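Morning!

This is the sequence you dropped in the shared folder:
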Amino acid sequence: MAENNTEAKIVMLTIKEAAALVEGLTEYRVRQMCLSGQVPHIMAGNKYLINKELFLKYLRGETT
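The structure's back. Tokens below.
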């Protein structure tokens, strides 16, 4: 039986990339959002990685 390879690719953003998505949003503010738990993230070494889809949903005010 063949596996279905139509899974959506997960896109992770650095703080810099996440801040660049929204005009007026600074890297400092994105970092604070991660530290306060407003935005779900993972740590890869000393880098914050933010799921793009969840980040955009948060900014739109959508809750999961």
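Headline: The helical segments are 15-21, 27-35, 52-60.

More detail when I'm at my desk.
O.
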